[in-house]
Amino acid sequence: MPETTIIDYGIGNLRSIEKALEHVGAGPVRTDNPARIAEAERLVLPGVGAFGACIGEIRERGLEKPIREAAGAGTPLLGVCVGMQLLFETGEEHGSHDGLGLLDGRVAHFHAPAAPSENGTASDASALTVPHMGWNTAEATRPSPLLRELGGPVEEEKASAPYFYFVHSYCARPSHTGDVLATTTYGPRAFPAVVQRNNVFGVQFHPEKSQTAGLRLLENFAAL
């Protein structure tokens, strides 16, 4: 059985993601031990709450270095919800906070105007209700093993886009459109729902709450 290490930095209820990984045979193990994180076969970085509080706990527990070293060594890493946001350089929730910097870009509020370089994003989303909450499709933009059997360009026969469950007020604004695997449209704004650079992956939605599609995605991650 594969083993998947869930990074436990003391924020959020991890039981849901643990149960979902158990269901797909991913062998979940929760830990806040830096050595175990550095040596993991694959890592899941969950997240609930505010960007600054989450990255603060990661640093307080000495987990930033092993996460970055594991990612640099090629260990598959999946960030979930705020865990995905932490992969970026900067988060703008309640001030500016440095993230893990594994992906280039920032995390901004839905109401924040888009920079000219942020392709595919509407310039004015001030009328959007936040948080963005509920079921939305994720439209794949390029193939990836993470999205196997979930429709889009990764499939020989294009299927309908899968639905996932979202709860968030902030969204990623990647510097490189090539890091985006799938997008979701909320009102006038298209935002990254799934990102990837090499072995580093992130999903803005909650796969553990997304029924069949979410379990398929976690099973794909466990097979990496």
Task: Give a concise summary.
This protein is α/β, with parallel strands linked by helices and 224 residues long. The protein has a single domain (4-222), classed as Rossmann fold. The protein has helices spanning 15-23, 34-38, 51-60, 64-72, 82-85, 211-222; strands at 4-7, 28-31, 43-45, 77-80, 88-91, 97-98, 103-109, 132-137, 139-140, 163-168, 170-174, 180-186, 189-197, 200-203.
Task: Describe what this molecule looks like in 3D.
There is one protein chain. The protein has a single domain, classed as 3-Layer(aba) Sandwich (Rossmann fold). It is 22% helix and 30% strand. It has helices at residues 15-23, 34-38, 51-60, 64-72, 82-85, 211-222; strands at 4-7, 28-31, 43-45, 77-80, 88-91, 97-98, 103-109, 132-137, 139-140, 163-168, 170-174, 180-186, 189-197, 200-203. The strands form 3 sheets. An 8-stranded mixed sheet has the order 2-1-3-4-14-13-12-9. Strand 5 and strand 6 form a beta hairpin.
Helix/strand class: alpha/beta
DSSP helical segment count: 6
What's the CATH topology label? Rossmann fold
Compute the separation of the termini in Å.
13 Å
The backbone outline, from C-alpha atoms, is globular
CATH superfamily: Class I glutamine amidotransferase (GATase) domain
> Hey, roughly how much beta strand do the residues contain?
25-35%
Top CATH class? Alpha Beta
Query: What is the number of beta strands?
Result: 14
pLDDT < 50 runs, ≥5 residues: 119-123, 154-158
Rg estimate, integer Å: 16 Å
